[in-house]
Amino acid sequence: MKVFTLDEANGLLAVIEPKMMAIRDLYERLDGYRPDARAAAGASDFGGGMEGGTDYVNTLYKIGKLTTEVHEAGVEIKDHTTGLIDFPSMRGGRVVYLCWKFGEGDEIAWWHEIDDGFAGRQPL
Predict the structure, then answer these.
(1) What phi, psi does 48 have (nearest 5°)?
(2) Cα gap 101→110, rounded to integer Å
(3) Which partner from 18, 37, 97, 112 sits 20 to 30 angstroms from 78, CA to CA?
């Protein structure tokens, strides 16, 4: 597990935020395909297929690629819809999460214990 200082996490935020926005937008695109994808899955024994199937598969690929990039950077995605992400960090000799989501500005202002989650957020 990568452990971040606040400065490191804030520096990486400028790289991660656009990836999180892209992930959110790609998931929104997938929502439009869900009925056709379900129908295609149900017809898979008969050859399946769906209009826009190539775009659907490419969208899934892009989501996987971006999600992998975020995870490989050491950042944990908690909710792609709100952009909620956690950066493991040390505080008081224990690992905690520095916490950020869409709309909270260019710097991280919150942290929480590993087991407390979003509900346990406290200002830095």
Answers:
(1) 55, -140
(2) 10
(3) 37
The model's pLDDT over 53-91, given as tens digits with 9 standing for 90+, comes to: 678 889 999 999 999 999 999 999 999 999 999 999 999
- Residue count of the chain, please give it: 124
Confidence (pLDDT) at 46: 46
Task: Give the model's confidence band at 30: pLDDT under 50 very low, under 70 low, under 90 confident, else very high.
Answer: confident
DSSP 75: P
Rounded to whole angstroms, how far apart are CA atoms 29 and 43? 22
Instruction: Quote the tokens at residue 21.
Output: 């926005």
- Inter-residue contact 106 to 94 (CB < 8 Å): no
**C-beta of residue 117 within 8 angstroms of C-beta of residue 102:** no
Query: What single-letter DSSP state applies at residue 107?
Result: S
Q: 3-state DSSP call for residue 69?
A: helix
d(CA 13, CA 29): 24
Q: Are 120 and 103 in contact (CB under 8 A)?
A: no
pTM of this structure? 0.85
**Tokens 């989650």 found at:** 117
